[in-house]
Write a structure and sequence with these properties.
Blueprint: E1 2-7, H1 14-28, E2 32-37, E3 53-56, H2 62-76, E4 80-84, H3 86-98, E5 102-107, H4 115-123, E6 130-133, H5 138-142, E7 152-153, E8 178-183, H6 192-206, E9 210-215, H7 221-230, E10 237-241, H8 247-252, E11 255-258, H9 267-274, E12 279-281, H10 287-290, E13 298-299, H11 305-316, H12 320-337, H13 340-352
Parallel strand pairs: 1-2, 1-4, 2-3, 4-5, 5-6, 6-7, 8-9, 8-11, 9-10, 11-12, 12-13
Length: about 350
């Protein structure tokens, strides 16, 4: 089967990484796979199977995108187009229908961030042959309109991060310090101001030292720097920038925390669970679907600073054997639900079925 994955650009994000995993996996299953982007970008392409041909249209605007994409579809004549993210999904749906190509859209979040985008996405879903989601809860907010079929749930694939680096992070010998780790973009969605405020509360309430490593980049960096300074947390919060070598930070962390306002299925959360450390997450997106509070992780009551601080305080006061037990259960959850073989079989089923 000739499969065309279609996305706006290969930028830094969870959807892009999942596209690479699935595309590479389908090549290994014997499919002919190509990757088409609207604009340039090369994040994660080094992880892409070399047998996947990559094309970039370098579009200037929406109309240029429609024209060039239509020309590409007619010339390459794929059996199926798989759309990722908003702009490619809208264009791919329209042109897939126009060119009578089977079209599948993979929706990657519980929301697209605005009412207008959610509305347009829902009301063009009828153009798809199938619409996928990696979050079961998406059906409530993102259910397709106008009689389109229901969303089909396929979770993210997880490929274990193999530590190839000899570099280690050397910390002081203060065993009383509790190390936290966050991995993700420094954007509104991730709710980092409330995490930083929560850390301040926990420091004051517990009387213990807490250290927070923030891994990622984004437009909120200056605002977060200012907040850290305002709360006198310069010795507690460390901005480490973007790195793919996240495992070395997870190894030195006592727990991982994801305070998001909304989510799809965050790769960082799955990676932390696979590292067998306790995780705390807000009850958004897929978080409450895969975390059983107190068993394989911890869920806050809501996304407020108070709720985050309450759960952080609870975790730092648990005995060490309980933290180890939760981490072990977290890793088991990943192995049982998100392995490549399990996820690829679900993708192939969707592709083969009419």
């Amino acid at each position: 089967m000739k499969i065309c994955f279609f996305i706006g650009a290969m930028s830094r994000g969870g959807a892009e990484r999942q596209l690479v995993y699935v595309a590479s996996g389908l090549v290994n299953k014997g499919h002919d796979v190509i990757l088409l982007t609207l604009k340039s970008g090369n994040e994660y392409l080094d992880l892409l199977d070399s047998r996947v041909d990559v094309y970039c249209l370098e579009v200037k605007n929406f109309f240029d995108a429609v024209k060039k994409t239509n020309t590409f579809f007619k010339k390459n004549n794929p059996d199926v187009v798989i759309n990722f993210l908003y702009h490619a999904s809208i264009i791919g749906r329209l042109l897939g229908k126009y060119n009578k190509i089977k079209t599948i859209t993979s929706h990657r979040n519980s929301s697209l961030g605005s009412y207008s985008r959610n509305f347009i996405f829902r009301h063009t879903a009828y153009l798809d042959n199938k619409t996928l989601t990696n979050v079961k809860a998406s059906e409530k907010k993102m259910h397709p309109a106008w009689g389109a079929p229901k969303l089909i749930y396929i979770p993210n694939m997880y490929i274990r991060n193999i530590d190839k680096s000899n570099e280690q992070i050397i910390l002081d010998n203060d065993t009383k310090t509790f190390n936290w780790c966050f991995i993700g973009r420094l954007e509104k969605q991730k709710n980092l101001p409330n995490l930083i405020r929560a850390l301040k509360m926990v420091n004051e309430k517990s009387g213990k030292k807490n250290r927070l490593f923030i891994l990622g980049e984004g437009s909120d960096k200056a605002e977060l720097d200012s907040l850290v300074s305002q709360l006198n947390l310069e010795k507690s919060v460390f901005f480490e920038g973007f790195t793919r070598d996240t495992l070395k930070y997870l190894k030195i962390s006592n727990a991982f925390i994801l305070p998001s306002l909304w989510e799809g299925m965050p790769n960082a959360l799955i990676e932390a669970m696979d590292a067998a450390i306790p995780v705390i997450a807000t009850p958004v997106g897929v978080n409450s679907e895969i975390i059983q509070d107190g068993l394989n992780g911890f869920l806050t009551d809501n996304t407020s600073a108070n709720a985050i601080a309450e759960k952080m305080y609870h975790v730092i006061n648990l005995p060490e054997d309980k933290l180890i037990e939760v981490g072990v259960e977290a890793r088991k959850s990943v192995e049982q639900k998100f392995s490549p073989d399990i996820i690829l079989s679900q993708w192939e089923k969707v592709l083969i079925e009419n």
